[in-house]
Design a protein that fits this description.
Elements: E1 6-12, E2 25-30, H1 36-44, E3 62-67, E4 71-75, H2 86-102, E5 106-114, H3 121-132, E6 137-142, H4 149-163, E7 173-175, H5 184-202
Parallel strand pairs: 2-4, 2-5, 5-6, 6-7
Antiparallel strand pairs: 1-3, 3-4
Length: 203
C-alpha cells in the first residue's frame, strides 16, 4: 500500500460522535511514550499529522484520520503513566473501552509495544482484555533502532513467551522504527490486506 493522502477529520470524546461507520477503521494505541504519534507520521509520510510531544498523555481524544479517502486511522489516548488526575484517567478509560467494544466498523487494533523494555504487565493486561472481548488486534514493537539487534530480538522473544503463557497462538507481530522507517512496508502491506478483506466482506 502507498499512502497518497492522509487528512485529519475530527477529535471526539465518544464513539457515538465519530464519523459514519461506512469505512473500515484501524485503531492505534499503546502505553504513554511508546512513540505512537511518531509511528503514525512515519506510516503516512506526514511528519506533522499526529501531534508528537515529549510529555506523555498528549493524545486525549479519539482522533480520526482519513487515509486515501478509503479507510480511517484512529489515534487513541495512551494508557499508563501519563500524569493526569484519576478522574481524567477514568474518563479516558471509559471513552477508549466504549470505542473499542462498540465501534461497529473497527476492523483491527494495533497495540504498540516499546521494544526497549522487558514485558510490561500493563501491556499484557490490555492485550488480555482485548482477547477477552473478542477484539482483533496486532502488535507493533516500536523504537527498534534504540537497541542492538540482539537485544531487540531478545526483548521480543521474552514478550512472546509471556503471551504464550495465556495464549495458544500469537497475533500478527511487526517491528518498527519511526526514525529509520524500518518495518513501514510490512505494516502498510498488512493494512492493505485488511482493507481488502473488509471490502470483500462488505460486498
Amino acid at each position: 500500500m502507498i499512502i497518497k493522502k492522509a487528512d485529519f477529520v475530527q477529535s471526539k470524546t465518544s464513539y457515538k460522535d465519530c464519523p459514519l461507520p461506512d469505512k473500515c477503521e484501524f485503531a492505534f494505541i499503546g502505553r504513554s511514550n511508546v512513540g505512537k504519534s511518531s509511528l503514525i507520521n512515519m506510516l503516512t509520510g506526514q511528519k506533522g499529522l499526529a501531534k508528537t510531544s515529549a510529555k506523555p498523555g498528549k493524545t486525549q481524544l479519539i482522533n480520526h484520520f482519513i487515509i486515501n479517502e478509503k479507510w480511517y486511522l484512529v489515534d487513541l489516548p495512551g494508557y499508563g503513566w501519563a500524569k493526569v488526575s484519576k478522574e481524567s484517567k477514568a474518563k479516558w478509560e471509559k471513552m477508549v473501552k466504549d470505542y473499542l467494544t462498540l465501534r461497529e466498523n473497527l476492523f483491527c487494533v494495533f497495540v504498540l509495544i516499546d521494544n526497549r523494555l522487558e514485558p510490561q504487565a500493563i501491556d499484557i493486561e490490555f492485550i488480555n482484555w482485548l482477547g477477552g472481548n473478542g477484539i482483533p488486534f496486532s502488535l507493533i514493537f516500536t523504537k527498534y533502532d534504540k537497541l542492538s539487534r540482539t537485544q531487540a530480538s531478545s526483548n521480543l522473544v521474552k514478550f512472546e513467551n509471556e503471551m504464550l503463557k495465556t495464549w495458544q497462538e500469537l497475533p500478527p507481530i511487526f517491528v518498527t522504527s519511526s526514525e529509520t522507517g524500518f518495518g513501514k512496508e510490512e505494516v502498510l502491506n498488512y493494512l492493505d490486506s485488511l482493507v481488502k478483506n473488509f471490502e470483500e466482506q462488505k460486498n
